[in-house]
């Protein structure tokens, strides 16, 4: 007898209030990283790799070199992220948006993130939950799964489908189409008066 594998992948997202709380207690160097993660869905490594030549503030787009599937993807910059990026100091000694010590690639934010989530009273939040937060809020706002898939850089919709349960309104709207069919059929079967 073959047992089915349990899906242990955690899907946790933060409410708007928790996002605001996390950002409010973030230190100056971590705040724009959190804002970027929540507003782009970029992975931690993609954020660490991000260089200014991939950030087009004029056209409000970030080119993400996606090592997971090998294809670059483009993520629009919304107003919240634009404000955060414009306030960032640009160092001439490094190409990185968020440089580490000595201008090299940032390699770790674990301790600052743990301290930030503790100050926010969100001890069970992981950095990857910010990516889930991005996707979850898009789906709950009615953005279609194909668009969310493209923004996240998923190769197939299988990974993105894990967010579909967050959109019950979309499903309800879909079956409401049948109400029109039923009412049209009823009108057609009424005898004509005369």
Topology:
Layout: H1 16-24, H2 31-40, H3 44-49, E1 55-56, E2 61-64, E3 73-76, H4 79-87, H5 110-119, H6 129-140, H7 145-152, H8 157-160, H9 168-189
Antiparallel strand pairs: 1-2, 2-3
Helix pairs in contact: 1-2, 2-4, 2-6
Summarize the structure in words:
This protein has 194 residues and is mainly alpha-helical. The chain has one domain: Intergrase catalytic core (hpI Integrase, Chain A), CATH 1.10.443. Helices cover 46% and strands 5% of the residues. It contains nine helices and three strands. Strands 1-2-3 form a three-stranded antiparallel beta sheet. A hairpin with an 8-residue loop joins strand 2 and strand 3. Helix 1 packs antiparallel against helix 2, helix 2 packs antiparallel against helix 4 and helix 2 packs across helix 6. The longest helix is centred in the last third of the chain and has 22 residues. The protein is elongated, with a radius of gyration of 22 Å. The termini are far apart. The N terminus is likely disordered.
